[in-house]
Amino acid sequence: MSFEYNFGFIDENAKREIRRKTLKAVALPGYQVPFGSRELPIARGWGTGGLQITLAIIGKDDILKVIDQGSDDSVNAVNIKKFIQKVTGVQTVIDTAKATLLQTRHRIPEEKLTEEQILVFQVPLPEPLRIVEASEKETRRMHAEADYSAMWLYLYESIVKFGEITLGAGYPVMVNGRYLMSPSPIPRFDIPKLNMSENLLIFCAGRERRIYAIPPYTSVEPIEFEDHRFRVEDFKGQKCEECGSAGTYLNEMVETGSGERKYFCSDTSYCKKVKEGKKNETAS
Question: Is residue 125 predicted with pLDDT exceeding 60?
């Protein structure tokens, strides 16, 4: 039995609305733009936001890459990639440098992206103020008035209790000196990559019905105190067991039985490329 789909699965009116809202998000860096989130054949919370952006902006000549926490082979990444390929017929790749459109969950690729590439983020919780304010109406007011005192107080209390800011993934950032933004649950290691990035960054939460964006060459700064600076995860003294890289975000693995701790690159495509490059150098 064969099925015919509209290119990109969702209807053209829905695509136009998503593209209009995305343009508004690009024009107001860091601002959360409401949109009419559509139903898709995956559950909300499993990437419907990022998927809707991808399906709305993808073209027949695009080359797609999908990752989940840096991996091209995770269940979420593979299923989303298969679905997009089925309803568009576009080419898919693992090599980051060859992709024109990338969809990600919880990571930014290790390889620096270019002006010709777009990175789309799957976002579970777009509101950075939710940890300090439960009311949506109140958080809207706080953003409108740039009233972020409650977040500063939250960070201060964290320092008083623990001696440092304990926020990990999704560390809040100030975009273009105006809006406080949640950069999806990417690790702190990836936060510096957002600042003055050459490529367009689009974030979308399907369940929360919000789109926001960071245009190329836009200032993105993690909020911090003068005496308690923002810092990334520390992997000093560790390197990837597969490729030997020491400057990448590493996943810690504990071997069953021996209890030995080993580290591997989160970005599997980058790891494979480095490993192949070293193998070619040895062969030549």
Answer: yes
pTM surpassing 0.85? yes
Buried b (16+ CB within 10 A) or exposed e, 30-44: bbbbebebbebeeeb
Q: List, in order of start, the domains of the chain with CATH numbers.
A: 12-128+173-222 (3.40.50.11310), 234-284 (no CATH)
In three state form, how does the secondary structure of 8-44 look? CCCCHHHHHHHHHHHHHHHHCCCCCEECCCCCCCCCC
Q: DSSP of 145-178, one letter per residue?
A: TT--HHHHHHHHHHHHHHSS----TT--EEETTT
What is the per-residue pLDDT across 157-196, written as a single tens digit (0 to 9) for each? Answer: 999 999 999 888 999 999 999 999 999 999 999 999 999 9
The catalytic residue positions are 30, 240, 243, 265, 271
Task: Look at residue 102 in the predicted model and tell me its pLDDT.
Answer: 98
Is 223 in contact with 151 (CB distance < 8 Å)?
Answer: yes
